[in-house]
Every structure is written in C-alpha cells, then in structure tokens.
Amino acid sequence: MRLQDKVVIVTGSSAGIGKATALACAKEGAKVVVHGRNQAQIQATTDQINAMGRQAVGISAEISDNGQVTSTVQQVLNIFGRIDVLINNAGEDVGPRKLEETPEDIWDRVVAVLLYGPYYFCREIIPIMQRQGGGKIINITADAADFQLAHEVANLPYVSAKSALHGMTRQLAWLYGQDGITVNAISPGDILTAKKLKWWQSLQEKDRQHILSNSALQKLGQPEDITGAVIFFASEESDYITGATLRVNGGQFMA
Q: pTM higher than 0.90, yes or no?
C-alpha cells in the first residue's frame, strides 16, 4: 500500500472530491483526518473509513478561522503524533459573479476559505514536516483559475483565490524543497459532485453537448477521477516532483 500508516489531513472531506480522496487514502493504508463543517457528513465519512478497517478521526472546524485551524492541527498531533500529508481541498463557491455582483462580504468569505484556509494549515503544518524530515502538501485548485469556461460567467472571487493558490503552491515548493517537503497542485475540470450534478441536470441537452464537445474524452469527471492523482502526489512515487500542477479534466482546453 502506497500510504501505509501515513497520517493524512484532507480538508473539506465530508463530501464530494474531498470524501472520495479521504476514502482513497484510507484504501492505500493511511490514517485519515476527515475535516468539514457538517458534523453528520463528517461522521458518515469517518464511519465508512473505520468500517474498512482503517483508522479515521473526524474534526469539525472553520477553515477560515486561524484559531480553529491551530486547534485542529494540535488535535491531530495529540492523536497520531505526526502529520505526513496535507491535502488542501475545502471549497467555497458562490456561483457566477461579475465584479459588480460581488459585494465585499462575499469576496472576503470566498478568499478566507480558498486562500487563507490553506495558508493557515500550511503555516501550522510545515514546521511539523520540517521537524519530521519531510512531507507532502497537495493543493486542489481549478481549471477555472486559468481558463475561461465556455459555459460559465467567470466566478470572480473563486477564480481569483484559486489563481493565488497556484502561485502559493509554486512559492512553497521553492522555499521548502530543501526540507524534503514537496508541494504540488491538482487542477480539476468539470467534476460531477452533488452540487455540479444539479447544475448539469438543469441544462438543456444542446448545452450539455456543447460542453462535452470541448472535452477530448467527451464526458465529465467523477470525484473518484481525482483520487489517482492525489495518491500519486501523496506517495513516494512523486518524491522528485514539486511545484507542479496536474490537470485532471478529460482533455478540456486542448483546442
């Protein structure tokens, strides 16, 4: 198993891509920290992992609150004694937003979750990884940060925060590579999470076909399609890769 006994924190792992990632890490032998805001969903994911015979702990915390992040990390250390992998996945999406449709409170909320959250977790965990002699950090970004999707109005705060996370990935990789810490990003395309599925079902057939025509594989992804890339970056197989972004998007934007 590629993550045997590794302690892995997956933020926003009570549903969607995060949940699929937490389950995949557990299957590879990891001890998983399930994080989110919905206690019932956290418990359901934690129970599912424990039922597999793996060890999991669920922690409910607001990722945009530095104090709660600090407390979360301390709880993990108290339970497991170490942290080997951090997967910054937690999201906050308020839908398509132009500049004039983005009040300051919405901007602040999205940036707090998508950018400050990873910043808080990295600030807490990188010194731990330095003391341990290394570790893995994986940031889940988004293709929307680099490409204008043909079927959507740009979500300005979301795109801005995810773009900044790309830059943070590269800077952290450069600054802490000598400490044995690799920092990489995974950039998903259209993935059919529960929220995305509702959007997909609301479209007319001609609009669906137009979207699919912009993808080499002519289909949308499932949350499980992201997990192979996550396991690769979390495992020893990627030890000589850092500062990279891997696009998992079914061949979108190739034209």
A: yes
